[in-house]
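Progress against Task 2.4 (sequence-to-structure conversion) is shown through the following example record, which the project officer requested during the mid-term review.
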Amino acid sequence: MYFYRQKRCLIPININDIVFKIDEDAYDKLKTYLSKLYRHFKKDENGAKTLNDIESRIAELFSERVPGERKAIDM
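Structure tokens generated for the chain above:
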């Protein structure tokens, strides 16, 4: 019996002006997470700045995880 992981589609995203490719599972999780953050911080007067800071940090972490030109994130 052989087990293999089916190849997933990579979805291009732009975070803090950096383009990454993430697989479908990672995209779904990131989309859910960011949606919750937007709903939470939209009421705050400094919410836009806070969201920008969070997105910048996510981009930093993604860049550290996949240095170079590859820029593909998976789960």
